[in-house]
Amino acid sequence: MNVEFINPFLNALLNVVGMMGHTELIAESPRLKKNDISMGDVSGLIGMVGPQTKGSLSITFEKSLALRIMQRMLGEKTKEINEDVTDMVGEITNMVTGGAKKELGKKGYDFDMATPIVVSGKNHTIDHKHKSKGHVIIIPFKSDSGRAFIEICFE
User: Fold this and answer.
1) What is the value of pTM for the model shown?
2) Within 13 A of 36's CA, how many CA atoms are on the CB side?
3) Hey, what domains does the chain have and what are their CATH numbers?
């Protein structure tokens, strides 16, 4: 998978979580993901289709990080992943994809975005394969409040 295509998603995540959630994420080494089990507790998944590409992106947060971002973004402190937290994860997923779409548009890539789907719970699954036949690349991030993960799958 082309780094030129992946980096706009990573940069958009760092910007959105940094500016909106007042949280610094530090990227770790990317790797191929071999299964559909999430690495965290709540995930936003969005499909993308365009003339040059077809695929999907997911952003997964550990519970501790999702709750901290919720508190920092909205001033609301909660102890569990609830509808407000899942709405926030969906909106972060949408903002990250929109930011990457804008950046990729400057490089000649164009795609339409679906509405994000949010799934939560321990060991929930993320199914990229119905959206694309490509490999799934996962990039972990660490922060002071827990971990986040971007998964990208494109043909």
Assistant:
1) 0.92
2) 9
3) 3-154 (3.40.1550.10)
